[in-house]
Amino acid sequence: MKIIYSLILFSFITFFSEGQEWESTKFTLDSFLTENPNLDKKVDSVFNTLNNNSIVAQLIMPAVGRLGQKEDTIKALLKDQLIGGVLLLNGTKVQFTNWIEEFESMNTNHNNLPFLYSADAEPSLVNRKILGSTPVPKANEIESLIEVYKVASVISNELNDIGINYNFAPVVDMAKNKTVGYRGFGSTPENIIPYSDAFIQQTQEQNIIATAKHFPGHGLISGDTHKSLQIIDGELKELKNYPPLIKNGVLSIMIAHIAVKNNEKFSTNGAPATTSRVIVTDLLRDSLGFNGLIVTDAMNMGGVSRYPNASIKAIDAGCDVLLMPKNSRKSHREILAEFNSNETFKSRVSLAAKRVIRMKICLGLID
User: What single string gives the DSSP state of each residue in 204-269?
Assistant: First the structure.
């Protein structure tokens, strides 16, 4: 009898301890790319509480601020559970802080998951994008690794003060293209990888997602993807900038609205890379082994906005986050309809949503 009692007691203690271990485990950004059964269970447990509407919402990130949506539009999308994050685009530090506090209060009241809050807080843009932020030198003015770490730390402190947890930086493009070149560390080509890596490591050390952009390379083309689709003709010469950053744990990569032609292996057949499974999944996921969040460049840009069914095609290609769709409500409706009717697409949406949820857990946004 004593033996049976002891076995029952041991089993109970073991079960309770395992449950407590999962519940009490603290995940960090360093956990995101690791194989972690406890984290996988936590992701699944959160995912399983969501309805289809909220699952699709995790993939959609509109912007608020000058050149973004109006505050009331964001609040309406939030109330209807149609979005999973917000880009803070062109405003003041005080305004952004107040918006995040208000949006998160609303998320609590509407039983939404917390949002990812992003910004284009590159050294070359942050003081223009976030008025009132601490002045820092532009990327092409930075002259040492020590200065890179310092600038990344200053920017990250500002973002943490505001409540922004996702930085669309650094730019790892070469310096030739005038629309992106001055924004990266490519004025001295040998600095691109070490300086970019230093910026990424310092940013993520301060609990903010860093983003290498614009994949597969925007610096050596001549045109502006804000206005129209641009083309890489032949070899992907800037691709070499990404493997070291992926190896060292960059958590997010942004896809450019650039087509690839005269490249036997990675041609996009005239489509933007954003909507090309060859670029997003075959190249970035499978060939380069990237397991972090893949975010599109702004979906209202001329390089993709004229492309039919771009939102669905970007998700189908393997992107996790749709940034600034022209019409977030319409994009959600279209993705949800495809989600409900296409099992393959449903699996892709679910995988993307789980990556977003995993990142929110690792940021400490979800208990």
Answer: HHTT-B-EEEEET--TTS-S-TTTS-EEEES--TTGGGHHHHHHTT--EEEEPSEEEES-TTT--T
What is the per-residue DSSP string for 305-352?
HTSTTHHHHHHHHT-SBEES-S-HHHHHHHHHHHHHH-HHHHHHHHHH
Q: Is the pLDDT of residue 5 over 50?
A: no
Specify whether the backbone of 195 is left (phi greater than 0), alpha (psi in -120 to 50) or beta.
alpha
- Kindly state the tokens that stand for 330: 């319409």
Side-chain-side CA neighbours of residue 74 (13 Å): 25
- Read off the pLDDT of residues 15-58 as tens digits, 9 standing for 90 and up: 434 444 444 578 999 999 999 999 999 999 999 999 999 999 99
Contact 198, 149 (CB under 8 A): yes
Are 347 and 322 a contacting pair, CB within 8 Å?
no
Residue 1 scores a pLDDT above 90: no
- Please tell me the chain's helix, strand, coil percentages from 3-state DSSP, rounded to the nearest 5: 50, 15, 40
pLDDT tens figures, 263-278:
999 999 999 999 999 9
> Contact at 8 Å (CB) between 210 and 199?
yes
The helix/strand/coil state of 25 is coil
Cα–Cα nearest to 252, from 195, 196, 301, 299: 196
Name the one residue in this structure whose structure tokens are 């050294």.
Answer: 123
CB 137 within 8 A of CB 123: yes
Q: What angle do CA 291, 293, 298 make, to 5 degrees?
A: 145
* Three-class SS state of 203: helix
pTM (whole model) above 0.85 = yes
What the chain holds in terms of domains, given with CATH numbers, is 29-362 (3.20.20.300)
Q: Is the dihedral of CA 270, 273, 274, 276 positive or negative?
A: positive
Contact by Cβ (8 Å): 319, 274 = yes
User: Is 207:165 a contact under the CB 8 Å cutoff?
Assistant: yes
The strand pairing partners of 209, in sequence order, are: 166
Residue 89 has which token pair? Answer: 């685009």
Nearest CA to 159 among 323, 151, 253, 29?
A: 151
Torsion, Cα of 321, 207, 171, 131 (10° steps)? 90
